[in-house]
């Protein structure tokens, strides 16, 4: 970069920087971790490469980069990693690093940490590539707003695609490289049989990823009855072909390119990739003119009746040095933009009301928009200090947004951080510290409660409250750990003046169920919902006219049998024999029902808003204050409070 260009870039960064500071971008492979800082749109600088083997974990490598660049604090980061990304736990298949996304985010102090598959990131980079960052191979012209295909030959064979959706793109996650290899001539049939001596399944990845070059070379040598030394690897075969023009090496590269062309053609017709096929990875860009003159394009189009269809599809080789940075930048930008454009109601609401807020309230709004994690995690005194406002201003800001108070605002803010809040299960492992496993248990519980809030059928909740409010008698049944929930429910509901009892013994449940009739209700709590004995007990009561409310997992025999089912699906820690999270969710359901019954019974006599205020739900935290309210529920109703 010339001095003049450098000065223009610096001026652009100064004039149009990200409002929330520089963003960290990373591209992590099995060998190297590449990092960069994005100061503004398309302003990616400070690119550095670190050998993964020199660092114990990903957080250590990131800390070293941040220290070397002296950037100070970073709020938002996005990482492309050569690994499947499915949930919070990442275990690299081609390196020893393993980490929790959420724990790493907290350890590094980021507000946002997105981790995506490297080919998903590369796919999202495609619309941002310039003509100088790609080379077209053969003819064809891309059709606007059409699907784009992507493949990349490196250590493996990556596959992805882009689907246009209005003004954005949707990247496909794919393991298409593992599709079964299909030979097209006698030579490739021999290579398939040669490979099958080592592997029971031969995929395209075996043949046209980087290691496939060596496999083909050795296979062709065996076919020609030639001896090959043990020191031959893909790089050596490529060197012999491009520099020494060794006939066997040249043939191996030509076969490699031909097989890759057949695979690319299959990808094009499968996706309908009229927007073009892009080729990335570390192998093909290094082949240069050899690839352009190879059988690749001819094999790509060799599709019988569909030759013309494929002839119209352009193929581009990606030549950009760090294209993954463009992709993770686009993904991170979309993630952060979603907070203000419908991705989250609370972020949208904040932005809509900015002009109507007082200067002090705007400082709280700016803190929530730019540092949402800080607002979620900090007590009110720290939020007020960081926004340079008083604590009453923070509360006033929350109520201006329509929230009941700070606790309600924090919950809405947390659910708006899709992609960064752990909405999947984090496994506890032997050797975890108290901080690690304690955090995982709490995160799993919070995640499950948030998922319950999103998926709970509130129409069934209303039906259950109606049944309980008019019940003559309520009995709570639970076996094993569920008996704890039944006893807790009995403790809450008997204060409403309704005859209640809890049974954790099948004999007592059966004896009591036989005496129930119309107007009576059984609340059956069961994680599995499969206990045949409990179902027989419920059959007896329902035949006599009693109703059953089930708190259980979805699509279980108990859920199907009940008058009303409140379903609570979740993920448990497999090694544990205790139904940890299910018990919490069942207790939460009981709290919801108890509050609903309290409100329903108190409505004719008491102003609900006054009662809620007296319950101090906002002041001390929802769970403790609701319980306190419930503990005085019956007395409040009787006194008309």
TrEMBL record:
ATP binds at residues 26-31. The keyword S-adenosyl-L-methionine does not apply. It is found in: Cytoplasm. GO terms for biological process: glycolytic process. PROSITE patterns: HTH_LACI_1, HTH_RPIR, SIS. The keyword Zinc does not apply. It catalyses: D-glucose + ATP = D-glucose 6-phosphate + ADP + H(+). Coiled coil: none annotated. Its EC number is 2.7.1.2. One of its GO terms (molecular function) is DNA binding. This is Glucokinase. It comes from Pararobbsia silviterrae.
């Amino acid at each position: 970069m010339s001095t003049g260009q450098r000065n223009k870039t610096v001026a652009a960064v100064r004039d149009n920087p990200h409002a929330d500071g520089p963003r960290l971008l990373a591209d992590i492979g099995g060998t190297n971790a590449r990092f960069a800082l994005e100061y503004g749109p398309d302003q990616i600088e400070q690119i550095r490469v670190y050998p993964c083997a020199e660092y114990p974990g990903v957080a250590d490598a990131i800390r070293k980069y941040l220290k070397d660049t002296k950037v100070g604090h970073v709020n938002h980061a996005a990482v492309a990693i050569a690994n499947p990304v499915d949930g919070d736990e990442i275990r690299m298949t081609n390196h020893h690093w393993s980490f929790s996304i959420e724990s790493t985010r907290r350890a590094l102090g980021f507000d946002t940490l997105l981790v995506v598959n490297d080919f998903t990131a590369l796919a999202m980079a495609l619309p941002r590539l310039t003509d100088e960052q790609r080379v077209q191979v053969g003819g064809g012209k891309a059709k606007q707003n059409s699907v784009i295909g992507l493949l990349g030959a490196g250590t493996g064979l990556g596959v992805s695609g882009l689907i246009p959706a209005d003004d954005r793109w949707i990247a496909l996650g794919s393991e298409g490289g593992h599709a079964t290899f299909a030979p097209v001539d006698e030579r490739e049939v021999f290579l398939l049989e040669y490979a099958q001596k080592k592997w029971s399944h031969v995929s395209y990845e075996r043949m046209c990823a980087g290691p496939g070059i060596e496999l083909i070379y050795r296979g062709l040598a065996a076919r020609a009855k030639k001896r090959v030394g043990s020191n031959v690897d893909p790089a050596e075969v490529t060197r012999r072909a491009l520099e020494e023009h060794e006939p066997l090496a040249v043939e191996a590269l030509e076969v490699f390119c031909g097989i890759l062309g057949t695979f690319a053609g299959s990808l094009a017709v499968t996706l309908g990739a009229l927007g073009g096929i892009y080729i990335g990875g570390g192998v093909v860009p290094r082949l240069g003119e050899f690839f352009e003159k190879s059988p690749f394009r001819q094999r790509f189009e060799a599709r019988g009746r569909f030759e013309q269809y494929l002839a119209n599809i352009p193929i581009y080789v990606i030549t950009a040095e760090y294209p993954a940075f463009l992709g993770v930048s686009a993904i991170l930008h979309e993630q952060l933009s979603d907070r203000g454009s419908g991705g989250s109601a609370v972020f949208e609401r904040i932005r809509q009301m900015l002009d109507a807020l007082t200067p002090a309230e705007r400082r709280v709004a700016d803190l929530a928009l730019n540092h949402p994690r800080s607002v979620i995690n900090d007590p009110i005194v720290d939020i007020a200090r960081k926004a340079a406002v008083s604590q009453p201003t923070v509360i006033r800001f929350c109520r201006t947004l329509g929230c009941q108070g700070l606790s309600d605002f924090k919950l809405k803010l947390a659910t708006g951080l899709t992609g960064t809040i752990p909405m999947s299960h984090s496994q506890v492992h032997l050797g975890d510290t108290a901080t690690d496993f304690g955090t995982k248990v709490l995160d799993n519980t919070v995640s499950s409660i948030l998922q319950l809030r999103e998926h709970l059928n509130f129409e069934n909740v209303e039906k259950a409250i109606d049944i309980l409010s008019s019940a003559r008698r309520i009995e709570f049944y639970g076996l094993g750990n569920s008996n704890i929930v039944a006893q807790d429910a009995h403790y809450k509901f008997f204060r409403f003046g309704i005859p209640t009892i809890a049974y954790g013994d099948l004999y007592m449940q059966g004896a009591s169920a036989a005496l129930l009739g119309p107007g009576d209700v059984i609340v059956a709590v069961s994680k599995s919902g499969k206990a045949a004995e409990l179902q027989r007990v419920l059959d007896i009561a329902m035949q006599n006219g009693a109703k059953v409310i089930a708190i259980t997992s979805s699509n279980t025999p108990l859920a199907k049998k009940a008058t009303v089912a409140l379903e609570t699906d979740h993920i448990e820690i497999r090694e544990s024999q205790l139904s940890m999270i299910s018990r919490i969710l069942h207790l939460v359901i009981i709290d919801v029902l108890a509050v609903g019954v309290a409100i329903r019974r108190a409505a004719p006599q008491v102003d609900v808003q006054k009662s809620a205020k007296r319950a101090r739900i906002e002041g001390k935290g929802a769970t403790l204050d609701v319980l306190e309210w419930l503990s005085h529920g019956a007395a409040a109703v009787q006194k008309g409070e």
